[in-house]
């Protein structure tokens, strides 16, 4: 069988897998009766519905013709990687990873690190521009979040402030 | 008159110094994100939610609402001057607005959009004020069965009216409902789908989902497209005033756009985007007068009608939220979250238990609209300058503010890991052509739906027929079914698909 719509086939597959996952997971909780529903009742119901929808979409994707095959197209690995990496780096730098002994570096270091890594996702990368941007963002964030809104952030590395 | 007493109370609340400031900040931010392409109200409101913790609830909601309707104003500026949709709902404004700018008539186009929006905003606010009380009365008659049916109708309506592939969107809703169930079950105390991770027993934060899917997912997808050529008509904005001829053409278009937008805003799944599309389609069907430019070549009606419609809809879409507690679109789903953060349970009781919040919010919308017309017309020069900010400076800032925002919701890095995961998921959704808005609606409604289903079934002792034997509930379910049947009719199906292809 040839897949007639790639996008639909894989979204159907996703629904089917996730739906059955939730339904199987629901069996570990008490299902109960319709008058006294247990914690597993509603997720079981929805999981089965989602799985059926998924299978139906997959079936349709193999039968109904689309003009251009509805290709998914190439993945944008570069932006995907750098955006997500920049985000993760923010968490690591801001809060540290106590389990592996990475110290918390605080907000300012985190802003610089994140801005640089995230900027790599774009088509052009000029380090000078990025550093200026990071400086502006640091000052703005410090003023807005720490001074004005009084949100609780570790601002500087823990080994400096103690 | 009750209405006037209530409005007086509302204006009393809205006219305090603090609330005026927050309304202004909201409108300013709304215009800003509206002008900037690639930054939408959903991501912005999600980003700013944590910042509203410290504010009183009225001020927080006034500000967040301002962002939503402010974005409708700002979006038109970008559409007219750059031929890019600053906001999704301004897509149709581009068609005629940009042509007007190319003919050196950017000023009148901006004025038509601004004035149309202002008029529509005022009307929308009045409708909101007038309809709120009677609808609330109805809502008090609702039992759990009615609420469950209402949510079914709301969710079905949301996908029927506002998305491409129907069955895929229904799947997104169910997926959202399921994700909403993750965490501790309120009835039994069982932690569901938490995989023994303590953070997951509290459930997934809706801010995390909104930012990951709407914020990161879209940035990644934007970056994968090559830079578009931008041609900004900055020097040519001279003479804002439309001619008398323009006014004569605009007026009926504004009126049509406003009434259509107000009606569509109330419907589940309605909201600004749909209203703008529908208004433009109707304008195109009306006769073009002799001497008037055809549509697509710079007809002022093609700017005035959709801009009025999207602004009217953004006001009236507050009606289901404030009276029934049911969010009709993704932005309103975030407003539900904002209200719960401040310990306000959205629903009919808001009007009686927090009248100053309810009427203050409504009054602030009128004030906000007045602020916006000043922000957008005389100060247009500032916004045009902003348009020259390149995207490569914007997206690192957005990612950063998202990360700071999620961290500050719980002061916990766990949420940062989660938002990264949802960023990847959001990008997968975009690649597979799955729309994220129904997911967010389902996510917000999931726990409410389960709760009402349980209560209804408990009261009926397990008899499922309760949903069709109670007249109100049966009517609501009947309407949902009718919607599905109408959409499935072959003639409408092809028309509907055509309409979405135009996007």
Describe this structure in words.
- The complex is a heterodimer of chains A (162) and B (503).
- Chain A has 162 residues and is mostly helical.
- Chain A folds into 2 domains: 58 residues; 85 residues, no CATH class.
- Chain A has 6 helices and no strands.
- The termini of chain A are far apart.
- The mean pLDDT of chain A is 85.
- Chain B is mainly alpha-helical and 503 residues long.
- Chain B has one domain.
- Chain B is built from 23 helices and 2 strands.
- In chain B, helix 7 runs antiparallel to helix 20, helix 9 packs antiparallel against helix 18 and helix 10 runs parallel beside helix 12.
- At the A-B interface, helix 1, helix 2, helix 3, helix 4 and helix 5 of A face helix 8, helix 9, helix 18, helix 19 and helix 20 of B.
Helical percent range of chain A? 55-70%
Largest sheet of chain B: 2 strands, antiparallel
Strand content of chain B: under 5%
Number of strands of chain A: 0
Head-to-tail CA distance between termini of chain A: 65 Å
Series of secondary-structure elements of chain A, N-terminal to C-terminal: HHHHHH
Rg over CA atoms of chain A: 24 Å
The ordered string of helix (H) and strand (E) elements of chain B is HHHHHHHHEEHHHHHHHHHHHHHHH
Principal-axis shape of chain B: globular
Q: Could you give the distance between the termini of chain B?
A: 45 Å
Mean pLDDT of chain A: 85
Question: Averaging pLDDT over every residue of chain B, what do you get?
Answer: 82
Structure class of chain B: mainly alpha
What oligomeric assembly is this protein in?
heterodimer
Q: State the low-pLDDT regions of chain A, or none.
A: none
Number of helices of chain A: 6
> What share of the residues of chain B lie within helices?
over 70%
Strand order of the largest sheet of chain B: 1-2
Number of individual domains of chain B: 1
- Estimated share of beta-strand residues of chain A: under 5%
How many independent structural domains of chain A? 2
